[in-house]
Design a protein that fits this description.
Layout (H helix, E strand, L loop, with lengths): L4 H15 L7 H12 L8 E8 L2 E8 L10 E5 L13 H11 L3 E4 L11 H15 L7 E7 H15 L7 E7 L12
Parallel strand pairs: 3-4, 3-5, 5-6
Antiparallel strand pairs: 1-2, 2-4
Helix pairs in contact: 4-5
Keywords: Hydrolase
InterPro entries: AB_hydrolase_3, AB_hydrolase_fold, GDXG_lipolytic_enzyme
Organism: Paenibacillus pinisoli
Length: about 190
């Protein structure tokens, strides 16, 4: 028997609650667990890691060692996931290294401000700051790609909308990996 849309939504909610690794964990525990996990992730030998200061933010460039010269002024600006409360450049280094190697384009990740210490729109403001920083450092909007996973995907969308609304040149394209776009955690009504 086929489930109704409301029954399907309830089944999805139940599954997500059962598979959540962060259920019943504090923000501090989540961050500590991520920090511990980073210690076990090896770096790629064909990636150069350079720290970046983007105004008040810290960031990290992941540059393929066999970078094609014409890709030097191209960038993927990657916004990490972590539920707006966790995630760091270091935690996302493995994924972003893979993206850099696969694309042949340097990837810049940023440590945007996290909740609950910093409320909305702090993270979005930081993503806008990073994009403007790239533009002010000689990168053309047509040579910048946005990427993000989970709430990082949400930040990509929020940043694109903010740029469009303010008449700022948009990046060449964007990609989202399993974006978290339902910010009411699937509690919205089915239309």
């Amino acid at each position: 028997m086929e489930k109704t849309p409301n029954e399907q939504l309830e089944a999805i909610k139940s599954y997500l609650k059962q598979t959540s690794r962060f259920e019943n964990k504090s923000v501090e525990q989540i961050r500590r667990n991520m920090l511990e996990a980073v210690q076990n992730i090896p770096n790629y030998s064909n990636i150069e890691i350079n720290k970046a200061a983007i105004g008040p933010l810290s960031g990290e460039w992941l540059i393929p060692k066999d970078l094609i010269p014409e890709h030097e002024k191209r960038a993927i600006l990657y916004f990490h996931g972590g539920g707006f409360v966790a995630g760091t450049c270091e935690f996302y280094r493995d994924l972003c290294s893979r993206i850099a190697i696969s694309s042949g384009i340097p990837v810049l990740t940023i440590d945007y401000r996290l909740a609950p210490e910093h409320l909305y729109p702090a993270a979005n403001e930081d993503c806008l700051l990073a994009y403007r920083w790239l533009l002010s450092n000689g990168y053309s909007a047509h040579h910048i790609i946005f990427g993000g996973d989970s709430v990082g995907g949400s930040l990509v969308l929020m940043t694109l909308l903010s740029l469009r609304e303010n008449g700022v040149d948009l990046p060449a394209c964007a990609f989202l990996i399993s974006p978290h776009t339902d910010l009411v955690h699937l509690d919205g009504e089915i239309v």
